[in-house]
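Submission checklist for the structure archive. All mandatory fields must be present; incomplete records are returned to the submitter.

[x] Identifier: OSGI2 inhibitor
[x] Organism: Nycticryphes semicollaris
[x] Residue count: 541
[x] Sequence attached
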Amino acid sequence: RNYSSPETEGQLLNSFVQYFGDSLGRKIKRMPLIEETVLPGDSLLTLPVVIIGNGPSGICLSYLLSGYRPYLSPEAIHPNPILHTKLEEARHLSIVDQDLEYLSEGLEGRSSNPVAVLFDTLLHPDADFGYDYPPVLHWKLEQHNYIPHIVLGKGPPGGAWHSMEGSMLTISFGDWMELPGLTFKEWAASKRRNIKSDRVMPEEIARYYKHYVKVMGLQKNFRDNVYITSVSRLYRGKDDEDRSEVNENISTQHLEMEDEQKSVIKRNWEVRGYQRATDGSHVPFCLFAENVALATGSFDSPGRLQVEGEDFPFVLHSMSDFGAAISKGKFRGKADPVLIVGAGLTAADAVLCAYNNNIPVIHVFRRRVTDTSLIFKQLPKKLYPEYHKVYHMMCTQSHSADSSLHSAYTSFPEHNVLSFKPEMKCVLQSASGLKKILKFSVALVLIGSHPNLFFLKDQGHSIGHHSNQPITCKGNPVEIDPYTYECTKEANLFALGPLVGDNFVRFLKGGALGIARCLAIRQKKKQELIEGGDGGGDGVP
């Protein structure tokens, strides 16, 4: 491991201490950054919340934890009369302070998480019906509701949006990509950007998120170039299954502490990692948190077919690699088509990219074109004409046993890739078992991506709906309480965004709302206990 100089490490320490020392109202002599041999002590800082991931999920959660509160606007009338009546009942309360289960009851939307549907309909009423109603909420900054937290990300605020390909429009409108309190159009106008379409480039969204953190005053909570290596419990308490197992780093002295102190340690998380300095060196750290929120998104690991020949250099797994190949002129003068595997939006983007560059396409996917779970079935034709163009070709230009390849595009529905051959050939198998060998110039496997939770115990396999299986956004998301977003299998661990199945920015904001409400309630109860304890013994012991 490449350790930095003491001076560099000291600067990192001071940046934490200067802010969080004041925020927590205690004298902190050093930041929660320690050598691996050092045990946790009273002088080390324990944060109420550590957020892992600085994409839109992490940003929105930081916004709410910073004390911003949504209220029903005085003049607002929600188009859903039942919901509006409920909102009127507690107009004086912020949404964070209301019963989210009660408010979200009966609502329907394109998320399986009820709070996500609720928050979306408050911010974008009836958006799925094509309406452009303004939000029914207005925001207030209430400093007393601030919960100290830190957001850790590998790159600048915005997460994976900074590394997405810029050649394609986003699936969602710019308005749907925005975060609370700053409309995308306001930002575009302030930057004098000419947004020609309601749908925008990923690079525009990335700039908006980065600016959002700054203009909302959230940057003090963010640390960039941070890589997490481990998130673990300090020790297992008697509530856990293995009552005798103790973190081997906890000494006998720590285990002899009073019961009250034991319960605190049991709740805490230890977060280890390093921050990459400007000179490339690694500054290791270890900090402690009462709660950890996973907001890492789903772009860590591209999905793989796990077939023979997939590691050949002509088999690509990202749009950026495909775009680079086009830019380098690798397809000039080549008659063989590009082979695209997958039936999602990224695969559709690749089809459009190839089509627009006059590159013939072989499009292979496992599902039937009539499968109702295809994403194209969920997109209105008027709003997404280019994706419906791809879907139309998938349906009408499919290969049949007695036909040759179409000149520009041929689809192979209900086909699997069996293997790739070194002579740039691919073996396909149909649903009936029929095999076919096709020649191609480049293969592009775009079958989704998966989160990489390697820093959790067992890589996070234990916190999904299906135990002992990798977390995936569709098949095996993190199992959470639908209203608090706390992991049902691990207390004080929260998850939001794609990790719980909310791939659209529109819906991940609901996770931030659920977590913020849960933590606010717990903070209030904790404060009441403290105040009660200071009042002469009347409090709960």
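[x] Structure attached
Curator remark: The CA atoms of residues 43 and 214 lie 31 Å apart. The mean pLDDT is 81.
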